[in-house]
Amino acid sequence: MKLAIIGTGYVGLVAGVCFAEAGNDVIAVDVNLEKLARLRNGQLPIYEPGLEHLFARNAREERLIFTDDLAHAVAHSEIIFLALPTPPGENGGADLKYVLGAARDIGKLLTADSTYKIIVTKSTVPVGTVDKVRDAIAENAQSEFDVISNPEFLREGVAVDDFMKPERVVIGIGDGSPDPHRAENTMRELYRPFLLSGNPLLVMDARSAEITKYAANSMLALRISFMNDIATLCEKCGADVDKVRLGIGVDSRIGRRFLFAGTGYGGSCFPKDVQALIATGEEYGAPQSILEATESINARQKTTLIPRIEAHFGSDLSGRVFALWGLAFKPNTDDIREAPALVILDELISRGALVRAYDPEAAEAVQKQVGEKYGDKLCFVKRHYDACDGADALVIATEWPKFREPDFHYLHELLQTPVIFDGRNVYELETMKREGFIYHSIGRPVVNA
Ligand SMILES: NC(=O)c1ccc[n+]([C@@H]2O[C@H](COP(=O)([O-])OP(=O)(O)OC[C@H]3O[C@@H](n4cnc5c(N)ncnc54)[C@H](O)[C@@H]3O)[C@@H](O)[C@H]2O)c1
Q1: How far, in Å, from the CA of 337 to the mean position of ligand 1?
Q2: Residues near ligand 1 with C-beta < 6 Å?
Q3: What is the pLDDT of residue 316?
Q4: Where are the alpha helices (DSSP H) in 79-138?
Q5: CA pair distance 10, 8, nearest whole angstrom
Q6: Does residue 59 share a domain with residue 199?
């Protein structure tokens, strides 16, 4: 099939590459000329495991091309995906200016001789957006089109796998669809190769599809915040949240995933999607109080290590050096949007500390975002051990796999004082005790060497 993807970010690029891999012809459009130049040069602008070789193959075989020419993309495609940003607006609700702007531009390009097009909202958008996109296109369109919702559930870090083998595909058909069966059948055909293992394609009304995406992310965020609240209780009463996690996770009604306590969730989705669903609830007079609590627990959790650091070193950290392991909001990505590590970094530096940071993929993004602001208070190192050489303490903010089994003896030697503040509960308490560390983690007793 002939597809256009508008927006080549984490979602648009992965979707474009994977659709091309299934044999479709994909024209990917972006307004960021620098990004387009890199893509045309064969360079990926993001780190995403498994993406590189699929990207290279499909670009080489010309099933995937990159352009800023929207008119060309619209003219040569049957399905047009909108994979554009939906950042929080003033009241926390999703700002639809990119999505509706692109919809208007597409409408102007649908002239009387254009063929039938399906425009798909792949961005995470609030309930009612399919209707708004339809209206925005209809302002100028002179040919037949449909608008449907197809929210994306991929996870950064495993995005290629998630896209190639989705647990489900959700298709939302709007009330105003001129031919719901045609739209549904076209989407079934497109997704057939991705669902060969039998996972479902769920067809529903557009409003339910739009809410489904927000409800999924919000449910996962609330599980994390719930466990973080339980972790705080465990700390106060001398229990161990990791044991509680195992104890409840084996219950099939609960399940094991998204039950890890830590320094809170971040990323480009959970924080903004929770906020947006709260805003939608307000708009419709259906307050989402559980999500308001989810959000405030998460804000608290991002700084939860700071009082422990202050209790150990005092509130003035001038002259202290902290090794910081992990900057990305989670392992296996270079995405630092809303990363808890950035909050920790800021808290440390504002108390006078120097931070030596290490991340396998995200250092460049952090340098770009805050390097100038922090100047020589922040430096980056190439090996995780280098961050610890002579440091007063090690802080762990992201659980990259390589942090799991360090040479503890070497680490102990490198650190000025053997103190670890672990925001991701990476190590066993027994190991820390045996290796002679003072060890603070989340929701577990402190190890005092
Ligand atoms: N990142 C994720 O893990 C994820 C997962 C599921 C859903 N989503 C949703 O998908 C949407 C996109 O997210 P993302 O993380 O890919 O965003 P992103 O910021 O990584 O990428 C968006 C891209 O759109 C481009 N763009 C902006 N305006 C444009 C225009 N008018 N025409 C063409 N390109 C334009 C930007 O230059 C950028 O390359 C959001 O709604 C997000 O909530 C994201």
Answers
A1: 12
A2: 6-12, 29-32, 35, 83-86, 98, 101-102, 123-124, 152, 154, 156, 268-269
A3: 97
A4: 97-109, 129-138
A5: 7
A6: yes
